[in-house]
Write a structure and sequence with these properties.
The chain is of the alpha/beta class and 371 residues long. It has two domains: 216 residues, Alpha-Beta Barrel (TIM Barrel), CATH 3.20.20; 126 residues, Beta Barrel (Lyase, Ornithine Decarboxylase, Chain A, domain 1), CATH 2.40.37. Helix content is 30%, strand content 24%. The chain has an eight-stranded parallel beta sheet. The chain has a five-stranded antiparallel beta sheet with strand order 11-14-17-16-15, with no helix packed on it. Strands 18-10-1-19 form a four-stranded mixed beta sheet. The chain binds pyridoxal-5'-phosphate. The site of pyridoxal-5'-phosphate has 10 residues, from strand 9. InterPro entries: Ala_racemase, Ala_racemase/Decarboxylase_C, Ala_racemase_C, Ala_racemase_N, PLP-binding_barrel. Keywords: Isomerase, Pyridoxal phosphate. It catalyses: L-alanine = D-alanine. GO terms for molecular function: alanine racemase activity; pyridoxal phosphate binding.
Length: 371
């Protein structure tokens, strides 16, 4: 692989395929698979990733917002796309792009029915979300009769799936709570199907639930982070391969003496006789938040850790390379699947892999690797 000459995010589609196959191996053969590709496929590249996954055995895609789904249609994605967070202002984008909305409360249900009726739609596919404990989006268990009465009064929409979302599938200390969520969803789904007279697809679990709760697989599973190579547990992360590597180069090396400072607000002051620093061409505008400054984060140069010193700037960071044999132009790894992971970097600064990878901004060049 050629060395990085600027800041790049390398995306390895072979690793993506590996993760997909690993997650599929946890499912029964007839369980459907929904790939969550919201937020640029977690900061990677939603279009490349969705186009690639479409040729594997993927049944569904999900995005958070309608515009993300429209971009996938533009990129040639033809499989069904669930919009997880439907907003009324985007109904026309939903319809124009054949996206399938999540209807999660009475307001959005009634508004979408009125909209599709006005547009002369017949059995437009919709998804109904129930809240079983996350308390974020979703109808309540006792809304079933109300929803069914509204649905029976129209032919403009038809329910493709019922779903819910687990609050703590990665946290085995919350096992009792999770099992109650699963039981509650099961009961809701039974009541709903009986009342409406047909059987929508049922789905509840995200990546950690695929791994930890086979009883929550139902008819389909939804995976985001697992596809991108993180399992929210040390054990699972050994089976999965991070698909993205963030790399850059050393722009300039400085030698500073005791008492000199580095960067804005003089946040780093050298107390060693001699400190060698490297300036790197990426900063908080590229997704390396200020929380990684002042020693919370590090990069890898020739296999050695170089801590980030001082405050993270918009377009640059400075790292301490004292004792590391390196020169201007040498490659720097911020995270990859082998030397150091996004999970380690994120945890060191008190956040999670999800936040770090989804923050890598559109300014960073994406390089797709595929064999
Ligand atoms: C983001 C999201 C997922 C994916 O979760 P992962 O932990 O990344 O697998 C699944 N379902 C819903 C409703 C989501 O919002």
């Amino acid at each position: 692989m050629p060395k990085a000459q600027e800041t790049i995010l390398e995306i390895d589609l072979n690793a993506l395929r590996h993760n997909f196959e690993y997650l599929k191996s946890k499912l029964k053969s007839n369980t459907k698979f929904l790939a969550v590709v919201k937020a640029f496929a977690y900061g990677n590249d939603a279009e490349e990733i969705a186009r690639y996954l479409q040729h594997l055995d993927i049944d569904y895609f999900a995005v958070a917002y309608a515009n993300e789904g429209a971009a996938l249609r533009q990129a040639g994605v033809t499989k069904p796309i669930l919009v997880l967070h439907t907003l009324a202002v985007n109904f026309d984008v939903v319809l124009e792009n054949c996206l399938e909305p999540n209807l999660y409360n009475a307001k959005i249900l009634n508004e979408f029915i009125a909209f599709t009726e006005a547009e002369n739609q017949n059995e437009y596919p919709v998804h109904i979300k129930f809240n079983t404990g996350l308390n974020r989006l979703g109808f309540w268990e006792n809304d079933v009769d109300y929803i069914v009465s509204k649905l029976k009064a129209t032919s403009a929409v038809k329910v493709k799936s019922l779903f819910s979302h687990l609050a703590a599938s990665e946290d085995l200390n919350e096992r009792d709570f999770t099992l109650r969520q699963i039981a509650s969803f099961k009961e809701i789904a039974e009541n709903f199907s009986k009342a409406i007279g047909y059987q929508p697809i049922l789905h509840m679990t995200n990546t950690s639930g695929i791994l930890n709760y086979p009883e929550a697989h139902f008819d389909m599973v939804r995976s985001g982070i697992g596809l991108y190579g993180f399992g929210n547990s040390e054990k699972e992360s050994t089976y999965l391969k991070p698909i993205a590597s963030l790399k850059t180069v050393i722009s300039q090396i400085h030698q500073i003496e005791k008492g000199e400072s580095v960067g804005y607000n003089r946040a780093y002051k050298s107390d060693a006789l001699f400190t060698k620093t490297a300036t790197l061409p990426l900063g908080h505008a590229d997704g390396i938040s200020r929380i990684y400054g002042n020693g919370k984060g590090f990069v890898i140069i020739h296999g050695k850790r170089a801590p980030i010193i001082g405050n993270v700037c918009m377009d640059m960071i400075m790292v301490n390379i004292t004792g590391i044999d390196c020169k201007e132009g040498d490659e720097v790894i911020i995270f990859d699947g082998e030397t150091t992971s996004a999970e380690t970097l994120a945890e060191g600064a008190g956040t999670i892999s999800y936040e770090l990878i989804t923050s890598i901004s559109q300014r960073v060049k994406r390089v797709i690797l595929k064999s």
